[in-house]
Design goal:
alpha+beta; 4-stranded antiparallel β-sheet; 54 helices; 25 strands; extended
């Protein structure tokens, strides 16, 4: 076949030394070899060497002189398209497929218009939704080959050409046809979606498990082999969305129901039924395991490894339910299938007497079950299974059947029932998939068996190969047509290409007297048999047709030469299978069945209604199943299976010819189902059978290689000289080609492309490689020469320098040697002389010294002996006395010091208590200074009485002093007289007493001397015991110190460890909480996005309904009405309203049904509830984080202090709540006053209550006085509350005085370690028993001090308890006073309300009466309170009188002021009346009544504005229209301040809040939100609009926060801004709604930006050569960018940068927050990185070293842009890390283990799947680059196997980072904002 082609190739390109060729091989089919010697014409032998270094000789056929095919250059191996190969032949195709499949793990390859799919026998992650999104919208040649690319091409051509499409999937059993078809349908369902709410795309996909269960089975080649062909038409509407589907089936293998070969199974549904026998609903089927049924155990392999049949049954039932097949029909199907299983177990026995008779034993269990399940008569069925009816012209005979015939009849009945059930299911699946709307176009997916050849081929293989002959003919014609169109389009001279035409083979099968015709004729013969039919075939076609042959050793077989191979068919069984005989009597019995489904299967008329209830009728006619029903009419029964198959095949070919076909050829790589194992023999067989090689042959016969002029110029620019390059690229290419290729027949010039014959691209590549190699050699030669010259000069200079330094060094060394020799001689002479002299002097001096020392030693020894004896006596005397004194003083000092320490400690504690008491009392006094005047006056009176008492005490003291002096003087005189008398008496007895006393003294002297001796003995004993005790104490002290140091060290270590662990745990928990928060935020925002999508869908449905009802009167709906209704549904629940509150006036009578609104409202409520839960969870997480941080920081805090702080905090919180209640009440009163003020303006007559009238002024004064009184009461309550809190704090301080922790504080204050030690010893000794204390301190002073200390503590505790009770009593009294004041305030409010209802004249009297009543009640209260203390009551009365006098004085002053103001008002009113006389003459009374009177007040015009805008209620629509709907962002962004619409809206909200109009606030906010939604929906694709309103929405949200009055948002406000805070309404819920709206706008903005950037990314980042000349293009075959859609324009990196600049400048002009801009830029960079990386992972032609350099350069330009815009901290650069690492991976070395380790450490942001994919796709652009070896990739996989990352291959390009809106307060003053006239907002009034 390739002989002529090779001769042409060899003529153009000689086979020379080192050329590589393909040699036929018995095992590998083709084997690569290299020439060892040049070939010369006439040589008969080629000397070759294989890749394993084995040499061989190849003999050339002397007749044909055919040379072996040449091998393509390595640079062309592994191409996406086989037609891109320069040499197009079988070994090149086989090798290219093997390299892609084995080395690159790529299962898809293009071959022109054919997609070759090799079954990997392994699940690959290349079919996810991310892959579908990546291929959606792409041209077929832009991405790597994929089934999705073919599906996208078909979908795109259907939309572009308005022509139906077909995808023809063919291949052997087990090649993956069903899976490929399934993925194609899944792609259509995902990309197109459904046009209705019926989810048709889900139903289309749900039909797969049903058809697989009833039509697929396990074979020796495939575990899920389709045993029927099917053609599915997927219907689309005009918008190209799925509306329905229809299925045709072909040639179901019915024989599998009753027979399976070894290791095969029956249809899956039967095993699924047996596996589900335990279910309650299946118990009536009386099933058992599959091994117990004859029909399911013939193959001996009832189980498929890894498949759960019970689970598959659940999937099948779910799919049936989804398609609308009811449960009753499903159970009917299961009854029929179970009956078939039981029918196979019915045993037929032959009659022993007559072999032609047979019978079924009575009461056969399986036949009884069969009849019960199908509802037929047992006797009838048992009879007709063994008998048949023969009808003659006039009589009818009943003939018994032999056993084998009865068994065949039983099996035929089972096959017929199953086939009928199969057709019924197909029919009802089609009814479920039927289009509910009109179908505009369709895409058909043909999943049909490929060419088959087995050892024994029967009728099924004959029909299959017949169908493949028809398909191959259609395929050849289509390929030929495409080639012709391409040549004509490019205006290339067209020459007829000779290709294989299989029409003769088709005529042999289907023509008149063809094989099928003879088969049908033989079936009609009464005694026709397979043998007679074979003889007819031999007689008719043998030796007459070159395609028909007879086997040599058989008379019952025939051979047909098909397009793929010769196939031998066995004639046995052809007639029986073609007849498909079923006895009429058995069918009659089944027709009488009680089972409705079975009766429906075999009825004569058309089927009954579908089980899919409620389906509307369809006007479009659908194509019937290709397998018609068995029993329809008498003529229909006469049609044979072959005839039916031929008719259905003709219908199929008509359909395919009316569509544009797309071909998928599935290849089975091996017969053992091994993953990624390639068997060349099996692959070549299938390539020949599926037409791939025929496509190659047709392409090779013409001009298979095609280049555009630009591509050719870029690739082969190196072959041109500078003078050859012209401005016209087309002319340049012509000139160069004429020089390079002399034979002009080797190429042709088209309009846009250059066409090359096979091998010419390889020749050009060889020239290019030689040129580059020569250039490289020249460059290497020059560089190496320069390097060697440089190295030589450097070595020469180094040698000269070394020689110079060495010679100088040697000379200096020799001179130094001479100098050292001479100096050594002189030194030796003098040294020897000096040594001799020193030796003599040393000996002489040593002798003299020895003598003097010996003599002195003896003299001194004698002297020291005498002196030692004398001094020893003196030292002993003084030393013993000194030691005794020191020991005594040390003990005495220790005792005294211990006593001092203890007493000092007690004194300090006492002093501290006294200070605290003094301080608390003083504090209490200072707090009580601010009491009312009654307390002050009472204190003054107490002071006066104290002064009087002091005067009286002074007088009394003077009297007592005079009295005492007189008494003392008299006493001294009496004592003197008595002393004189006593002296006289004593002197007489003095002598006697002296004598007695002398005797006593002598006696006492003796006793004293004896006692002295005893005391000295005791003292010695005490000293010894004391010394022993001190030593023991020292030892214990040392041990305690060591223990203390150890404990301190352990505590420090533990504290350090705890701190470190806490810090680590805190960091981990913080990170985890942050991750959880981001996840929760992203989930919330995705939910919000889903809600927005549903809301848009709801709006679209409303619009469609409105369009449907537009013709009905009174049912028109405008957009504004729609939005207002939506707002009511959406936001009505946000603000609580009264039950009877009227609805908003914007509601129209034309509303949608309540059900739609309720559905939308329920969804919104669910989302709102979810938002609340998320906020609570977020708050909980934040609180937990704060709590853990506080716990870590305060882990060493005291529990007592925490309890005190908590108690005090609770009390303060309670008091703050009370204060807030009072303030809210005060605000309510003020609001009521404002409402009264407004009511007076609106309702009262202008003459009575005009602003200038006296009554009006008096009323205002009265209200002002009342409000001042309320403020005074409020201040009194606050003062009392502060006193209560301070008293509680004082009590808390006093309670802490008795805390034992105070003792530890005193000890801590002893900073000296010695002091602490001594105090510790003292406490330890104090805790000893009393006996030890008496031993240590004989006088018991310490014990007495300790006892006194305990008594003192008890006394202090009793005093503190008494004070505590007193304070608690006072606290109760003050609480009572607070309660009384609250009641008083309530009474004041009630009386104020009553006063406002009185006439103006009676209000002053009522107020005075009220004040008198209040004072009287207060007087009575205090009278009762101070009944026991008249002094206090009197003091209170005095203060009360003073207060009354003050009030009277104030009243008089107010009266004077009122009278003065009345006079002024009269004068002003008179002047105003005179001025307004002329102005009111032309005004109607109605206008006067409507407009409120505004008196002229000149000073008010000069006051500052409050930053509010007033508008009328009717102007709200105009405000929204001019400010939102019709506003042009460009003028606002350029000429005005950023965010001006947001400021205007907020100022309007402020005014509504200021006037306390909640209805207006709700209406304005709702209209604003709906207006923004409306304009964004209307201009959803306008980036400027979306950006503008995102900026203004965020600014409006910040304003609502900044002026909300919450302290967290007021930190950066000015005092003026704090005055502008909202007063009456809390808009926190609306802030959440506006925040959600901002999130929706953000997501819409990112979508708009993504849509703008999406077409630029791939072209600018990957395809465009930013660095010119770095990368060269490679041949791309027939699949190029121009294959599907012409390019609209080429984008570059500059286009992307310009677009980013446009985005950034627009957002900055709109005043968008900088943080938000950073988040948007980060999102855009993520999209750029993910889309670029995803395309890189799906494009083999982009994975090269040069492309990695281009990508890195492009990324650096993007990083430079970030630096220019100061966006480095936005996180955008980090999103490009995966792309950067992928580019680095393309450029690094990929050879050694060190390289693998470097790659693993470098690519930490890429997943393992992505790294392996890039390495597999890496393709050299030049011959100098090397491919990545499979062993290196395995090394990478081993190193990365422990990495835990996602198995997903592509990045999620649709991922959106969760957005946050950081609070950004504005420094702009609201009162300074000016509204330009261009905005048409003149109806707004600044306030």
């Amino acid at each position: 076949m390739f002989a002529g082609l090779h001769r042409v190739l060899c003529a153009g390109l000689m086979i020379t030394l080192f050329a590589r060729v393909w040699i036929p091989d018995t095992e590998d089919v083709w084997k690569s070899a290299e020439l060892l010697k040049d070939y010369k014409p006439g040589d008969t032998v080629l000397h070759l060497k294989f890749e394993d270094e084995q040499e061989t000789r190849y003999n050339i056929d002397p007749q044909t002189k055919e040379l072996p095919p040449l091998r393509n250059p390595d640079i062309l191996v592994g191409e996406n398209d086989l037609t891109a190969l320069s040499y197009l032949h079988e070994p090149a195709v086989l090798h290219n497929l093997k390299v892609r499949f084995m080395d690159s793990k790529l299962i898809y390859t293009y071959c022109g218009i054919v997609l070759v799919a090799i079954n990997p026998y392994e699940q690959l992650p290349i079919y996810g939704e991310d892959i579908i999104n990546a291929y959606s919208g792409q041209n077929m040649g832009d991405m790597d080959p994929h089934i999705f690319a073919v599906a996208e091409e078909a979908y795109k051509q259907m939309a572009r050409d308005e022509r139906n499409q077909s995808i023809i999937v063919s291949g052997e059993s087990g090649a993956g046809k069903t899976v490929s078809a399934k993925y194609a349908m899944r792609y259509f369902a995902t990309v197109s979606g459904s046009a209705s709410e019926a989810n048709v795309e889900e139903k289309v996909l749900a039909s797969n498990p049903i058809m697989e269960s009833i039509g697929n089975a396990k074979t020796t080649r495939n575990d899920n082999s389709s045993r029927f062909g099917k053609y599915i038409e997927i219907g689309f509407d005009k918008r190209y969305r799925i509306v329905g589907a229809n299925m045709r089936t072909y040639l179901l293998e019915k024989s599998r129901v009753v027979f399976q070969a070894e290791d095969e199974r029956n249809y899956h549904i039967l095993y699924q039924l047996c596996a589900s026998k335990h279910l309650p609903e299946f118990r009536t089927l009386r099933l058992s395991s599959a091994q117990n049924f004859h029909y399911t155990n013939l193959g001996g392999s009832p189980v498929i490894e890894g498949i759960d049949d019970a689970k598959e049954m659940m999937n099948t039932r779910q799919a049936c339910s989804l398609l609308g097949i009811s449960e009753s029909y499903q159970m009917g199907i299961f009854h029929v299938l179970a009956a078939i299983l039981h029918l196979g177990n019915v045993a037929v026995k032959s009659n022993e007497r007559d072999a032609d008779n047979c019978f079924i034993p009575p009461n056969t269990e399986h036949l009884i079950i069969f009849c019960d399940l199908l509802g037929v008569d047992y006797e009838q069925m048992s009879h007709w299974l063994c008998h048949r009816k023969i009808v003659t012209g006039s009589e009818t005979y009943i003939k018994p059947m032999p056993k084998f015939q009865a068994i065949n009849a039983r099996d035929a009945l089972a096959k017929h029932i199953y086939a009928s059930l199969f057709n019924w299911i197909v029919l009802h699946v089609n009814q479920a998939l039927r289009a509910s709307v009109k179908q505009h176009s369709f895409i058909g997916v043909l999943d049909i068996y490929g060419f088959e050849t087995f050892e024994i081929n029967s009728f099924e293989q004959f029909c299959i190969n017949y169908a493949n002959e028809k398909l191959q003919q259609q395929f050849n014609m289509h390929v030929f047509k495409l080639e012709q169109e391409e040549y004509m389009k490019e205006q290339i001279p067209w020459t007829l290409i000779d290709f294989y035409d299989n029409q003769p083979c088709i005529n042999l099968i289907e023509a008149k007297l063809g094989i099928l015709d003879l088969l049908d004729e033989e079936c009609k013969m009464p005694k026709g048999s397979d043998d007679t039919w074979a003889q007819k075939l031999y007689n008719t076609h043998l030796n007459k047709s070159s395609l028909f042959h007879k086997p040599r050793l058989s008379n019952k077989a025939f051979i047909i030469q098909h397009f793929a191979d010769k196939v031998e068919y066995q004639c046995e069984g052809f007639l029986e299978k073609n007849k498909d005989t079923v006895y009429e009597e058995q069918i009659t019995v089944l027709k009488a069945s009680k089972l409705s489904l079975l009766a429906e299967l075999f009825q004569d008329e058309k089927p009954a209604t579908s089980p899919t209830e409620g389906r509307p009728p369809v006007t479009r006619a659908t194509v019937k199943s290709a397998k018609p029903r068995s029993l329809q009419a008498s003529k229909e029964h006469k049609k044979s299976v072959g005839h039916q198959f031929r008719n259905s095949l003709h219908l199929l070919m008509e359909t395919l010819n009316a569509t544009t076909p797309h071909y998928v050829r599935c290849i089975k790589p091996n017969d053992y189902k091994l993953a990624f194992t390639f068997d060349p023999k099996r692959a070549v067989q299938q390539l020949r059978a599926c037409g791939v090689l025929e496509t190659i042959r047709i392409s090779a016969a013409g001009f298979p290689s095609r280049w555009t002029y630009q591509e050719f110029f870029n690739r082969y620019r190196v072959l041109m000289k500078q003078k050859d390059v012209l401005s016209d690229k087309k002319l340049t290419c012509r000139n160069v080609l004429e020089k390079l290729i002399k034979d002009k027949d080797k190429y042709q010039f088209g309009k846009t492309k250059i066409f090359f014959r096979a091998g010419q691209v390889a020749y050009l590549e060889k020239l290019r490689a030689d040129k580059l190699r020569a250039a490289c050699i020249r460059i290497q030669k020059t560089i190496r020469s320069w390097l060697q010259r440089k190295k030589y000069l450097r070595m020469r200079n180094a040698a000269i320098t070394i020689q110079r330094y060495v010679r100088g060094y040697q000379a200096r060394c020799y001179a130094q040697f001479l100098r050292r020799t001479r100096a050594a001689i002189i030194i030796q002479k003098y040294q020897r002389m000096c040594a001799a002299r020193q030796n003599f002097q040393r000996i002489r001096s040593a002798t003299i010294v020895i003598q003097s020392f010996v003599r002195g030693f003896h003299g001194r020894r004698r002297y020291r002996a005498v002196l030692r004896e004398q001094k020893a006596i003196i030292l002993q005397k003084h030393a013993r006395g000194l030691l005794a004194k020191r020991r005594y003083k040390r003990i005495q000092h220790a005792v005294v010091y211990l006593q001092c320490c203890y007493r000092r400690m007690m004194a300090k504690r006492e002093l501290k208590k006294l200070k605290i008491e003094a301080r608390s009392v003083e504090h209490y006094k200072t707090l009580n200074i601010g009491m009312e005047n009654k307390i002050v006056q009472l204190q003054c009176k107490v002071n006066d009485q104290t002064k009087e008492m002091k005067l009286l005490l002074e007088k009394l003291n003077n009297l007592e002093a005079t009295y005492t002096t007189d008494t003392e003087r008299l006493r001294t005189e009496v004592d003197r007289l008595r002393a004189n008398e006593e002296n006289a008496k004593v002197s007489s007895n003095k002598i006697t007493s002296l004598l007695e006393e002398i005797a006593i003294l002598r006696k006492e002297l003796k006793e004293t001397q004896a006692q002295k001796k005893r005391l000295e003995e005791g003292a010695e004993k005490y000293k010894e015991e004391t010394e022993l005790m001190v030593s023991q104490l020292k030892e214990q002290n040392t041990l305690l110190k060591n223990e203390k140091e150890d404990l301190n060290r352990q505590i420090r270590e533990q504290a350090k460890e705890i701190t470190e662990s806490m810090e680590k745990r805190m960091e981990e928990e913080t990170k985890q909480l942050q991750v959880d928060l981001n996840d929760e935020r992203s989930r919330y925002q995705s939910l919000l996005n889903e809600f927005c999508r549903l809301e848009e869908r709801y709006d679209n449905l409303k619009e469609e309904i409105s369009l449907v009802n537009v013709s009905k009167p009174g049912h028109r709906r405008t957009d504004s009405t729609h939005s207002s209704n939506e707002s009511e549904y959406t936001y009505n629940s946000l603000l609580s309203s009264e039950p009877g509150e009227p609805e908003d006036g914007t509601r129209r009578p034309e509303e949608l049904p309540e059900q739609s609104g309720a559905l939308d409202m329920s969804l919104f409520l669910k989302l709102q509830k979810r938002v609340t839960e998320l906020e609570q969870e977020k708050q909980g997480l934040q609180e937990e984080l704060d709590r853990k941080e506080d716990q870590a920081l305060r882990s060493k805090a005291k529990e007592a202090e925490d309890q005190q702080v908590k108690a005090r905090g609770a009390e303060l919180e309670y008091e703050s709540l009370k204060r807030q209640e009072l303030e809210s009440e005060n605000k309510k009163l003020k609001n009521e006053l404002n409402e009264l003020h407004r009511a007076l303006n609106e309702k009262a007559s202008p003459h009575v209550t005009a602003p200038g009238s006296p009554a009006y002024r008096v009323l205002l004064d009265q209200l002002t006085a009342s409000s001042e009184e309320l403020e005074v009461r409020k201040e009194e309550v606050l003062i009392l509350r502060s006193q209560l809190v301070s008293q509680k704090e004082a009590m808390a301080h006093k309670e802490t005085m008795t805390d034992p922790m105070v003792l530890l504080e005193d000890v801590r204050k002893m900073k000296d370690e010695g002091e602490i030690t001594q105090a510790y010893l003292g406490l330890k000794e104090t805790n000893r028993p009393s006996q030890d204390c008496h031993l240590l301190n004989e006088d018991g002073e310490l014990w007495m001090a300790y006892e006194g200390l305990k008594q003192t503590n008890r006394l202090l505790e009793s005093q503190l308890q008494g004070q505590k009770k007193n304070y608690e009593n006072e606290l109760e009294i003050l609480r009572g006073e607070v309660q009384n004041l609250k009641e008083e305030i309530n009474r004041q409010q009630q009386l104020l309300a009553q006063n406002l209802q009185l006439p103006p004249e009676a209000r002053i009297e009522a107020s005075l009466q009220h004040e008198i009543t209040r004072l009287t009640n207060e007087n009575l209260y205090y009278e009762e309170l101070y009944a026991d203390d008249p002094m206090k009551y009197q003091f209170y009365r005095i203060s009360l009188y003073k207060r009354i006098i003050d009030l009277m004085e104030q009243l008089e002053k107010q009266d004077k002021i009122i009278r003065k103001l009345k006079k002024q008002l009269k004068v002003f009113a008179k002047k105003i009346g005179e001025l307004e006389v002329g102005q009111t003459e032309n005004v109607s009374p109605a206008q006067l009544a409507d407009e409120p009177i505004r008196p002229v007040n000149i000073p008010r015009k000069e006051k500052d504005f409050q930053g509010m805008l007033e508008y009328k209620k009717d102007d709200e629509f105009k405000l929204i229209k001019n400010l939102i709907l019709e506003l042009k962002p460009r003028g606002v962004a350029v000429n005005l301040i950023p965010g001006l619409p947001a400021y205007i809206l907020f100022m309007c909200v402020r005014h509504a809040d200021y006037i306390n109009d909640d209805q207006r606030v709700r209406s304005l906010l709702t209209s604003t939100i709906n207006g923004i939604k409306k304009i964004l929906k209307k201009r959803s694709d306008d980036f400027e609009i979306v950006s503008f309103w995102l900026s203004n929405t965020c600014r409006f949200l910040h304003c609502l926060k900044q002026y909300s009055g919450e302290e967290a948002f007021m930190k950066h406000n000015t005092p003026r801004q704090n005055d502008h805070c909202l007063r009456n309404f809390d808009l926190a819920e609306y802030r959440q709604v506006i925040s959600d709206l901002a999130i929706q706008i953000y997501q819409q903005l990112t979508k708009v930006m993504e849509n703008i950037l999406q077409p630029m990314i791939v072209s600018g980042m990957l395809e465009h050569e930013t660095i010119q000349g770095v990368s060269g293009l490679k041949p791309t075959g027939l699949r190029k960018r121009t294959s599907s859609v012409a390019d609209e324009g080429t984008y570059t990196l500059d286009s992307i940068v310009r677009q980013l600049n446009n985005f950034h400048s627009t957002m900055c002009q709109h005043g968008m927050d900088p943080e938000l801009i950073k988040q948007i830029i980060r999102q855009m960079f993520y999209i750029i990185g993910s889309v670029t990386l995803n395309n890189l992972l799906l494009r083999k032609d982009m994975c090269s070293w040069s492309k990695g350099m281009q990508i890195r350069y492009n990324v650096s330009q993007l990083e430079e842009w970030l630096r220019d815009k100061n966006l480095q901290t936005s996180g955008a650069k980090e999103t490009l890390e995966p792309l950067i690492q992928a580019a680095q991976l393309l450029q690094v070395k990929k050879k050694t283990d060190e390289d693998a380790e470097a790659i693993c450490s470098m690519c930490n942001n890429l997943t393992t799947a992505q790294i392996v994919k890039v390495l597999n796709l890496y393709t050299p652009v030049n011959e100098f680059e090397e491919r990545v070896t499979a062993s290196f990739i395995r090394t990478i996989q081993v190193r990365l196997q422990n990495r835990k990352d996602s198995p997903q291959l592509l990045m999620d390009a649709k991922f959106i980072f969760p957005v946050t809106f950081p609070f950004n307060p504005s420094s702009l003053a609201l009162e300074s904002i000016q509204i330009p006239s261009s905005m048409n907002l003149g109806f707004l009034l600044r306030v």
